[in-house]
Specification:
Oligomer: heterodimer
Radius of gyration of chain B: 23 Å
Number of domains of chain B: 2
Largest sheet of chain B: 9 strands, mixed
Number of domains of chain A: 3
Helix content of chain A: 25-40%
Order of helices and strands of chain B: EEEEEHEHEHEHEEEEHEH
Number of helices of chain A: 16
Bound molecules: flavin-adenine dinucleotide
Shape of chain B: elongated
Structural class of chain A: alpha+beta
């Protein structure tokens, strides 16, 4: 091996890149993992929930050693109007067991841990370096270019996240269009652990996940989320960029309003904002998957658009991890011949895994979500319905059916029926 | 071939220090460390002299947790780094630091030029350089903004309050540099990878013949309090007030609080 050559160069030390590095180094490959942040995870953000299944397969018992915040045992979905909130609450031991475990995480710690795992397995991690371009020869990817330096590799893995400029540069991917991405903004709000446990009714180590639909996005397609960490709360919004032009408020203003919503402000009362960040979320799902491999190159994680965003939840980290694993396996079985043909095994492995299956499963969902009624009329409808049920002021009580139909009629009975049907089919 | 040493301090990144609003105490929980900014200038001076005159160029440091700094400093040019990592140095003052650095430099032997930052990024005591010169018996040259080697020693420009002084030094010297002297480049991919292959030389206090008693600081920091900005967390346009109305409300409130005249 010459000074300037590695078997594999991986661009980006997020969950996708570090997982691939971990597996490849473990298999004896010479791996260089390059991250532009000063530390892995330094600039990364996520809502905050990791579904553990895909990492568990790669690092059994990872929850024992990884810097996880809380194991989620409580799920709440709330429909918001400006003054009302209707919530469905699920608290179950079954949520956090039997392979369905999910955990709140903070990226600064989690990404560092995973990258260090890769380093310990033998990968060389370099931080504070941005890869500017891919080094091409005879139409194939032969390495990376960072500043003045060219570093050669047998194969390059692009794990550089949602707006992968590198995949765009070599024509594997189009520039993101507004309808293909959502924007996420979030704050990390510091609160003592005991306060969090009291407020959310949790035992030590247990966590709550809350999702919000309706007023928090001002009726726009998207939702709000809240995850409890050990000593902080991750609170944020995700919404589509497609109607960006018609926005009246800026993203930070929307977050600020969300924090002041009567259903939210008591949850974060007395807390101090430690961090504000914003980030893109790939949104178009299955229809947006780019070219996944080429001569000397594969694309993984967010860079490949592997995210399931269905309004009330965003799932990307478990897909990033699984796609990093699939890429690593395909590279190992290519036996140092990294042609398009040899790397096509990557796509095959993805198709056999949950990644493509789940993306297909939800493939109609982005279109379904494009229905603004879900974010406007329906939260209003549910709020009216429930408020009506629980309001007693001495006036005569109309029959049950009439009470249900009154708000439904406002939206239109047929519309409601058709939306329910479409929603069921999309899932 | 001349032998050049750059000294550096591994300091807390001030951007990560948080201040407790009530007690105003500094919170170092999430703090990362870095090579003190001024010392990066010192290292770059050494690096460019190395390239210009093919000198031997190494780095020197001491402290309580300096091991995490080694790869970083080596990516900035020196071919080796000599260091002492000892818990007892956590509270070292400028006097102790100078003693330890002088010990390491004597151990390296026959050093022609020692370069330091004018002061450290955390305390900026401006003592280490001149003290080091005294302990080594070298000439001391401070506030340097330009430096070049001569056959007998060096030429330097010193930036003083009322002008620039040009000095010539015979024999070995300790020079402290100001940030104006250069712009330290950010290490490149190859430099970072190269650093991983360079040697490091670990020494102990015993190796340089310094007793633990000699490392007790004479100057002790007995308290630091941060300044906090008081925020009342009042939001003026929360109930959908127009900007106009909110501004009026704000103006009233400020004058009620006696802030507006
Ligand atoms: C608001 C929001 C909420 C979300 N909520 C969840 C959730 O609750 N659960 C979930 O599973 N997923 C969630 N996601 C999605 C999840 O965060 C992503 O899918 C996941 O981080 C993708 O991992 P990755 O490794 O592919 O990319 P990233 O995590 O984006 O990592 C890419 C890395 O590459 C580096 N990089 C980029 N370009 C270069 C370059 N040129 N040179 C060197 N390095 C480079 C970056 O610095 C970064 O470290 C959320 C996303 C957002 C924005």
């Amino acid at each position: 091996m010459s000074e300037d050559r590695f078997d594999v160069i991986i661009v980006g030390a997020g969950p996708a890149g570090s997982t691939a590095a971990y597996i490849l180094a473990g298999a004896g490959k010479e791996v260089l993992l390059i991250e532009r942040g000063d530390e892995p995870g330094a600039k990364n953000m996520t809502g905050g929930r990791l579904y553990g299944h895909s990492l568990e397969k790669i690092i059994p018992g990872f929850a024992q050693e990884a810097p996880l915040e809380r194991r989620i045992v409580k799920e709440t979905v709330s429909f918001l109007t400006s003054d009302t909130s209707v919530s469905f609450d699920l608290q179950s031991e079954l949520l956090g067991s039997g392979g369905k475990e999910s955990y709140s995480v903070l990226r600064a710690e989690f990404d560092c841990w995973l990258a260090k795992k890769a380093e310990k397995a033998g990968a060389i991690l370099v931080t504070g370096i941005r890869v500017d371009d891919l080094f091409m020869e005879e139409g194939r990817v032969k390495g990376v270019i960072a500043g003045e330096d060219i570093m050669e590799a047998g194969v390059v893995i692009l794990a550089d996240g949602v707006n992968s400029l590198l995949a765009q540069k070599i024509g594997m991917k189009q520039e993101l269009k507004p309808h293909q991405a959502a924007v996420g903004a979030k704050e990390i709000i510091e609160l003592p652990g005991e306060v969090i446990e009291d407020r959310f009714n949790l035992h030590e180590g247990e966590g709550a996940a809350r999702l919000f639909v309706g007023d928090c996005t001002k009726g726009r397609i998207g939702g709000g989320f809240l995850y409890t960490n050990k000593k902080s709360i991750s609170l944020g919004l995700v919404f589509t960029l497609s109607d960006l032009q018609s926005w009246e408020k800026t993203v930070p203003e929307m977050v600020e309003d969300f924090k002041h919503h009567p259903a939210v402000s008591p949850l974060i009362k007395g807390g101090r904002t430690l961090e504000y960040s914003a980030h893109l979320v790939p949104e178009a799902g299955y229809s947006m998957i780019p070219k996944l491999y080429g001569d000397g190159v594969v694309v993984v994680g967010d860079a490949a658009g592997f995210v399931i965003n269905i309004g009330y939840m965003v799932r990307g980290m478990d897909l990033a991890i699984a796609s990093g694993e699939a890429a690593a396996k395909a590279i190992i079985s290519a036996h140092d011949v990294y042609t398009t043909q040899a790397l096509s095994r990557y796509r095959k492995l993805l198709e056999e895994s949950f990644v493509i299956r789940d993306l297909k499963q939800y493939s109609k969902f982005p279109a379904f979500l494009n229905n603004k009624r879900i974010f406007n009329e329906y939260p209003q409808l549910i709020a009216e319905l429930m408020t009506d049920f629980f309001s007693v002021d001495g006036s005569p009580v109309p029959p049950m059916m009439k009470r249900i139909l009154k708000p439904v009629k406002k939206v239109g009975l047929m519309k409601v029926a058709s939306d329910v049907w479409k929603g069921v089919r999309a899932l | 071939m001349k032998k050049i040493v750059a000294c550096y301090k591994w300091v807390a990144d001030e951007a990560d220090i948080r201040i407790d609003e009530k007690s105003r105490a500094l919170n170092f929980d999430r703090v990362k460390y870095k090579i003190s900014e001024y010392d990066r200038n010192a290292i770059e001076v050494g690096n460019s002299l190395k390239d210009k005159y093919s000198c031997e160029f190494v780095a020197v440091t001491c402290g309580a947790q300096v091991e995490s700094s080694l790869k970083d400093v080596l990516s900035r040019g020196p071919t080796n780094v000599y260091y002492i990592n000892d818990e007892i140095l956590a509270d070292a003052d400028g006097g102790v630091t100078a003693k330890v650095l002088a010990g390491i430099i004597k151990k390296i032997g026959a050093v022609d030029l020692v370069i330091c930052g004018e002061g450290s990024g955390d305390e900026y005591g401006q003592q280490v350089g001149p003290r080091l010169a005294a302990l080594l018996g070298y000439a001391s040259c401070t506030f340097v903004t330009k430096l070049d080697l001569t056959d007998e020693g060096l030429m330097a420009e010193r930036k003083l309050e009322d002008g620039i002084e040009v000095v010539q030094v015979q024999g070995p010297a300790v020079v402290t540099v100001l940030p104006d002297i250069n712009t330290p480049p950010i290490p490149t991919l190859k430099q970072i990878l190269g650093a991983k292959k360079k040697p490091t030389t670990k020494l102990s206090l015993k190796d340089i013949g310094l007793s633990r008693d000699a490392c007790a600081p004479k100057l002790k920091n007995i308290g630091v309090l941060g300044t906090v900005m008081e925020r009342k967390g009042i939001c003026m346009n929360i109930d959908g007030l127009s900007i106009q109305e909110a501004a009026e409300k704000l103006a009233k409130r400020l004058s009620a609080d006696g802030i507006l005249g």
